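Same chain as my last thread, 261 residues:
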Amino acid sequence: MKIITANLNGIRAATKKGFWDWFAGQHADLLCLQELKAHEHQIPEAARPAGYQYYYHFAEKPGYSGVALYSRKQPDAVHIGLGSVDPDTDWSRFDAEGRFVMADFGKLSVISAYFPSGSSSPERQAGKMVFLEQFLPLIKRLKDQGRELIVCGDINIAHQRIDLKNWRGNQKNSGFLPEERAWFDQWITAGFTDIFRQLYPDKEQYSWWSNRGQARANNVGWRIDYHMCTAKTAASATEVGVYTDTWFSDHAPLTATFSDS
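reply #2:
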């Protein structure tokens, strides 16, 4: 099983940069996309590849957020929006932003998620913390119900110092705040594994680079995109790669391969 996750920073822009030509050669079973910045009628024809089922969660605001999940295999069920799997929690403010699609295949659920960023204002950071506080009980409950989970997407948190180039200068910035990193610790303690770090514990690898200055040219980046898996699925992960040969976005696509066992 091969799963790709990519924040496209606009599906139309990434299409023009050749994303779907690249994807056609990947032979992936599943594709999770974030930051579509489009509505249904704006999805390019090239972004509807033959042989895949595709499911979208669009933001209400035009040109903003949005996620998608593409699958070769027909899922048993598809859940659009966090409220669809957790109706007892008020997810309305986040579901209006198009941040969650989950597809069930037997006992396995694959999630395409786009976590909020808090970098634009204190209010957005406060909202991000609410999202995190609500998300952890939800994902733990799904695991406790016996589901194997693969959470793919832009988490907007660099977990450890190794996960960003300039960690010293970013300790007071959203994405590397102590409270965000402590939350990430709780996620791992709850039984989830960052499979990139599992396979490559000492590798300095980033998945996002600022458009400012020469961040990309100098590889001054952050690793904020992940495949987070429950234990059995994590144990079957054989490879994780970050594709940087061609740039389709300010994020790089991540590819994870799992054995059949």
